[in-house]
Structure formats: C-alpha cells, structure tokens
C-alpha cells in the first residue's frame, strides 16, 4: 500500500466518507486525534460504524495497550478490520498486544528505544509494516522538526532497511503542512526515493498526491514492459534496452513495477 | 438626453399607475441598492399591485418584504430567489403569483411579448453623454449586463440608473436609442458585495473527489479533446472541476474552443493560458473577470438572449460540457434547484435548465447526502430541470448515467469509475440517512416553475 490515512475516531463525517478518500489503508484513530473527554464517544461511534462496514483496509490506532488499548482490542477484534496500529511500540508493548489479537499489526516507531530495537519490534508475527512517528520521536528528543527532515535521517533509513529485510511495509511519517501540496509532493518523492513503501497522511487531500507519487508512472511501466519483453528474447545474462544495461536485478525491479502497477489498477 | 438627479423628479415625469410591471437585473447581486430604493419610492407613492420582474432577488432585498405583505408587490417574475424575500413568498406573502423563469426563458418571454415590462430600471456602471451605457466602466463596476438587454429594448420605458456619467465608454451594451431617462444617483450598489457566492476552489476532500471523478467522466466519454467547449458554475466543487480540467488540458496539450456563462477569474486564467480560444460572458462573478473584458479581445460579452433564449440560436446549444449542481435529483434524473425538500424557495433555475438542455454532456455534481439530507431522492419536490436534459450524476459514492444515454453507458462500460444505477445510489442514500419525510405540498398554490419554452413544469406551494 502507498498511502495510509489517519481519520479521527470522533469525526462521524470523515468516518462515513472514509471510502471516498482513495487511501490504500485507513487508520481510525482513537489515540492522539481524540481528546481524553471524547474517547468513550469515539469508541462508541466507531463501534456502530464498524458493525456494517465493508471497508477492506481498516486499522485502528488504539491507546496505550497497558491502559485502554487492550479493552479496545477486545471490543473491536470481532469486526472485519485488518488490524491495529500500535503507538509507542516497543518489544514489551508488542508482547502485550499479541496476547489479545491475531490480526495484522502496524507498530509506530516513535521513541529512541523503538528506533534502536526496530528489528526486534518488526519481527513479531502479524507485523505487516512499521510507521515512523516523526513528531513524537522528535518531541521525545526535544528536537525541532524541519522541512528537510534531517533530524529523522537515521531513523528513516534504518526503518527502510529493517522493513526491506523483513519484507514488510515501511511507512513514512505524515507531512504535517496540509496546505502545502508542492511540499508534500517533494516529501513523498523523497520517501519513495529512499525506499519507503508508503507515506502516511493526516488530511484526505494529501492522499491523491501520495498515490500519484508512489504509483508507477506510464513511462516507468512502459520501460518495465520493454525490459520484460527483451528478457524473454535474450538468453544472455546482460543485454541493453534503450541504451541502458539490463541484468537480473533490473529485470526483478521491472517485474516489481508491473506488479505494483497491477495492484494500483485493481485497487 | 436629460439627466435626472432624484427619484422624485423622475417619478413626476412618469405615468405611474397601479398594476404596472417593473423590471431589474441582478448584476449587482447582493450589493444592489437600486431595486430596494426604486420599490420603496414606488410604495411611498402608494402604487399598488406591482409585478416585480427582477432576474434575481437576493438577501440584500430584505427591505421590500413589507411591500409583499401590504400588497404593493403582488406578483414576482424571477430566475433566482433567495433570502428573506424568498422566505416571505414561501410563507404565502404574495397576493398574486410567483413565476420562476430561467435565464433563457426570461428574455424569450420578453421578446415574445408574454412578459410586458412597463418600466425597466437598469443599473449601469457608466453612461456616456449620448445615453449609451455599459457595466464595465465608471465607479461601481458590475461586469457585462447581459440580463438587462432584452428589458432595455422591449420595455415601454427604459430608465438607466447610474452613479457615473463619463465622456466615452469602452464599448456600449445598451444603446441610447432604447433609453428614455437617465437617473444619476450617488450610489447604485456596494461593489464589495457584488462578487457572487464563492469563487474559491473548495478544499473539501469529498468535493475534490467528486471533481476528480467528473474529469474522468469527461475523459472516458470522449469529450476531453481539442475544440471542447465548457461551462461551470461559481461554486467550490464546480471550480474544482475547472481546476482539474485545466491540468488535463495542459497535460494533453488540448485547446478548447470556448468557455461560457458566468465567468470567474479562474476561467479567464484558462483563456490567457491559451486553453480556450474564446470566452462568452453573460455575467462576471468577480472583478478579475470584469478586468479581463477590457484587456482580452477574445473575452466576448453576450446578452441573456444570445446566451440561452431557446428561440435565438443560443450559445448553450453549442456547448459540449456543462457542470451543474442540485438540491435534489430523483430516479428520473429530474433536478430541483428551486426549493429545499420542505418546499422553501431557496434558489431557482438561473441557467440550469437552459444549459442542461443545450449542452451535449450535462453533468450534475453533488454529495450523495448533505448532513442528514439525501440529495438523490425518489421524486424531487419541485422540478426545475427535466431529467431528459441530465446525462450523468457524479457523487462521492459512484456515478450514474441516465438510461436515455445508451451511448454514454457504452462509453463508460470499461471505465474504472464506480458506475451504478441511480436506484443503487438512492438505496445507499437511504441506507445512510433513512427514508426522509417530505412536504405534502398541501399549502396554498403560490406560483409556477416556468420552463425555458414558456411551459409550466411544476407548481409552487406555501409551506
């Protein structure tokens, strides 16, 4: 999936329109987006909605597993949801979570401890991806966020490596300037270039931009098709397409591009 | 031609009787002073049983509500009615009848002699020394005054109301040969309130999704091509469609033939980028559009008759794509933009029926439900535009094609859009908000919805 959209669990209009926003993953948020006073009514709202929901890609960001999170899992686990986004993930947190559910898990890497134990967190069964929580991580370390994300460089690159090793989704932190479409496009492009498989978003208007960035372009698809066709006609290990050297890694990448393109077409 | 400087002086010259018909245009929109001042002065003279033929009535016209209640104004003809006057009419304040016309039907009826105007009070931004006038020069700029031209020609007496007499006009819209009097006042309106509705592209994600899907409809039905002609409204979603269309045209190096209608600065930008060869303008929705008329020789003004009169080979008949709104749309694709679902008058066709009838691809864009009110209903409470004119409905839940358009159904059969029947959309709406209660329409008959050809397509009742 390329885009994950956070939707506040106490916003009925947004919840009802969730299917409209073309996000590959919907995260109904019961944690940071909902004030303490609203959490009970948000849970009730989400409960009613999920009774009849046929949305295929729903996750719920629960609250602290050691406080309310376990009750939330108990309440929602019977519904047709993909799984849960786990805040302030750590090995201890993940050990606790798996006592309550077998559904998919998306731990959020948002503490120094989580950054340092990323591989161990990601190795838990049912983890299908990990999200970098840039705002909480930098707040934790008393760092000011910048447009260039230099303060997150280490954590981002490590997340990409660990997730690639574990073959799970690496999901970049949300771009918080919701009015800056050019800035988002640049940031999402950078996410893709460093190897992130997806970017999360906090406003529905960000989703089409993220999807467009991560979707293989027409020219990428066309070139990939040329490579595959040429590979079927060539029995040498290395050959050339449009003046560019093609060997096995390039062929594998071309196949992945076509696979991704097919995924976008069907979803 | 003598310039008169007060209503008192003017009225001394006119043969004012009971039961006259007086007309106004709506180019001053919610910044209009002329309609109120004129009608209140007529009321002071105890003129009664007046038929008010105003092309549009806005919230700023609240001061004339007492004139409905006391019988000064007994009947109203208009194309758009909103605000306190609409509320008063919905509550049965008119002794006579309300006739809701269309932007094309109004000049048709004037030119055909069906709507006979005794006195046309035409607000203009500038008059020259010969008595010619326009809406683009002078102090209080309105933009082209297309909705007043038939009035100026056919009214028994034409009075220009202005705050600027100048030496020379950029061009004339009203010919002095049709003018009987010039009334020069200190002010004709508040320019800051003339800008219509919203001229800002929406940021609402649901509306943007609808706009994106609308562009896919245009693409998949084969209308996105060189030479296309296009018109959209001033609302947020309509402008978002223009935004996405602009990008598609740039990406595909597509040049359109013309854009038309009420013109905004956004459409002017498309002209100046070379995306359209011409603009045909019956009214300007903002001052950017007004400024364009003087600097762009391909930005043409047109009269309401040239725009939409079905008997005058109008521009709407040459239009490819029209983007429309709806307060309600029913299973036969009939559209209501005249009343809300309780029967309160809150708008009117304007150019809705005209453009739907004339265009090759009439697309209604709307949320499926708004708050707890369904937009797709079993049967509209008031029919403004007949379903035979509406081709496609785009909502955030899916796209419905009018079964009468088998050609479009075929073209969209392989589309990646979520194509559904309108019945399926209706079922989703009902699933979300339940079966709505509707007005019984058992109030007193207060008026009629007159289609562009003069036929009556629905009745209006008090609430």
Gist?
The complex is a heterodimer of chains A (267) and B (463). By secondary structure, chain A is α/β, with parallel strands linked by helices.
Question: Would you write up a description of this structure?
Answer:
The complex is a heterodimer of chains A (267) and B (463). With 267 residues, chain A is an alpha/beta fold. Chain A has helices at residues 12-16, 39-52, 65-76, 91-97, 112-116, 118-122, 134-140, 153-166, 181-194, 207-214, 218-233, 248-266; strands at residues 3-8, 25-29, 58-61, 83-86, 104-109, 129-132, 169-172, 198-201, 239-241, 244-246. Chain A folds into two domains: 3-214, Phosphoenolpyruvate-binding domains (TIM Barrel), CATH 3.20.20; 218-266, no CATH class. Chain A has an eight-stranded parallel β-barrel with strand order 1-2-3-4-5-6-7-8, surrounded by four helices. In chain A, helix 2 (39-52) links the parallel strand 2 (25-29) and strand 3 (58-61). The radius of gyration of chain A is 20 Å and the shape is globular. Chain B is built from 14 helices and 27 strands. Chain B is of the alpha/beta class and 463 residues long. Chain B has two domains: 2-193, Glutaconate Coenzyme A-transferase, CATH 3.40.1080; 205-439, Glutaconate Coenzyme A-transferase (3-Layer(aba) Sandwich). A ten-stranded mixed sheet of chain B has the order 1-11-9-6-2-3-4-5-26-27. In chain B, strands 15-14-13-12-16-19-23-24-25 form a nine-stranded mixed sheet, sandwiched between helices. In chain B, strands 8-7-10 form a three-stranded mixed sheet, with no helix packed on it. The model of chain B has no long low-confidence stretch (mean pLDDT 94). The radius of gyration of chain B is 22 Å and the shape is globular. The A-B interface holds A 16-17, 19-22, 203-205, 207-208, 265 and B 203, 205-206, 208-209, 212, 396-397, 416, 432.
């Amino acid at each position: 999936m390329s885009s994950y959209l956070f939707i506040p669990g106490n916003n009925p209009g947004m919840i009802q329109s969730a299917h409209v926003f073309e996000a590959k993953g919907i995260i109904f948020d019961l944690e940071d987006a909902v004030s303490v006073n609203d959490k009970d009514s948000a849970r009730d709202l989400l409960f009613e909605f999920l009774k009849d929901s046929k949305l295929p890609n729903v996750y719920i960001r629960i609250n602290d597993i050691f406080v309310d999170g376990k009750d939330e899992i108990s309440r929602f686990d019977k519904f047709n949801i993909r799984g849960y986004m786990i805040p302030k993930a750590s090995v201890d947190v993940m050990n606790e979570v798996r006592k309550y559910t077998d559904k998919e898990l998306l731990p959020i890497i948002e503490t120094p401890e989580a950054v340092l134990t990323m591989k161990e967190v990601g190795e838990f069964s049912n983890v299908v991806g990990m999200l970098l929580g840039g705002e909480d991580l930098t707040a934790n370390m008393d760092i000011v966020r910048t447009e260039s994300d230099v303060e997150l460089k280490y954590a981002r690159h490590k997340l990409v490596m660990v997730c690639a090793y574990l073959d799970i989704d690496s999901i970049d932190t949300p771009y918080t300037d919701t009015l800056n479409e050019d800035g988002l496009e640049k940031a999402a492009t950078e996410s893709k270039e460093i190897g992130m498989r997806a970017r999360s978003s906090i406003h529905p208007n960000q989703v089409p931009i993220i999807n467009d960035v991560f979707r293989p372009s027409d020219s990428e698809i066309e070139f990939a098709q040329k490579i595959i066709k040429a590979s079927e006609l060539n029995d040498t290990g290395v050959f050339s397409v449009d003046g560019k050297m093609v060997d096995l890694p390039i062929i594998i990448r071309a196949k992945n591009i076509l696979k991704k393109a097919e995924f976008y077409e069907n979803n | 031609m003598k310039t008169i400087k007060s209503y008192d002086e003017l009225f001394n010259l006119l043969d004012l009787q009971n039961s006259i018909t007086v007309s106004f245009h709506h180019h001053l929109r919610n910044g209009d002073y002329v309609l109120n001042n004129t009608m209140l002065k007529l009321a002071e003279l105890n003129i009664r049983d007046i038929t008010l033929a105003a092309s549009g009535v806005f919230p700023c016209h609240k001061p004339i509500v007492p004139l409905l209640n006391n019988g000064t104004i007994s009947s109203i003809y208009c194309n758009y009615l909103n605000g306190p006057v609409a509320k008063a009419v919905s509550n049965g304040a008119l002794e006579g009848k309300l006739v809701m016309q269309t932007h094309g039907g109004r000049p048709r009826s004037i030119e055909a002699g069906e709507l006979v105007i005794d006195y046309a009070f035409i607000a203009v931004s500038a008059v020259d020394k010969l008595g010619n006038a326009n809406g683009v020069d002078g102090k209080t700029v309105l933009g082209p005054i297309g909705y007043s031209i038939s009035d100026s020609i056919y009214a028994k007496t034409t009075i220009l109301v202005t705050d600027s007499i100048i030496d020379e006009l950029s061009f004339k819209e009203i010919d002095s040969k049709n003018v009987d009097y010039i009334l020069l006042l200190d002010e004709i309106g508040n320019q800051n309130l003339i800008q219509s509705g919203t001229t800002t592209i929406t940021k609402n994600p649901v509306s943007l999704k609808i706009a994106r899907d609308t562009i896919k409809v245009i693409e998949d039905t084969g209308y996105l091509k060189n030479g296309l002609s296009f018109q959209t409204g001033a609302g947020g979603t309509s402008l978002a469609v223009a935004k996405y269309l602009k990008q598609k045209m740039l990406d595909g190096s597509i040049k359109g033939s013309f854009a038309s209608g009420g013109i905004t600065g956004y459409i002017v930008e498309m002209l100046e980028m070379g995306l359209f060869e011409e603009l045909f303008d019956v009214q300007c929705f903002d001052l950017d559009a007004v400024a364009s008329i003087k600097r762009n020789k391909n930005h043409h003004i047109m009269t309401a008759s040239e725009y939409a009169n079905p008997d005058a080979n109008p521009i709407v008949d040459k239009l490819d794509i029209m983007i429309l709104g709806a307060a309600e749309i029913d299973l036969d694709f009939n559209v209501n933009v005249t009343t809300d679902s309780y029967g309160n008058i809150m708008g009117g066709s304007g150019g809705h029926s005209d453009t739907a009838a004339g265009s090759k691809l009439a697309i209604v864009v709307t949320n499926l439900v708004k708050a707890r009110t369904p937009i797709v209903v079993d049967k509209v409470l008031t029919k403004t535009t007949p379903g035979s004119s509406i081709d496609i409905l785009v909502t955030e839940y899916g796209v419905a094609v009018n079964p009468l358009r088998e050609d479009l159904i075929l073209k969209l059969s392989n589309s990646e859009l979520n194509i559904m029947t309108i019945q399926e959309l209706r079922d989703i709406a009902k699933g979300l908000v339940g079966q709505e209660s509707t007005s019984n329409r058992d109030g007193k008959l207060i008026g009629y919805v007159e289609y562009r050809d003069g036929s009556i397509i629905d009745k209006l009742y008090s609430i």
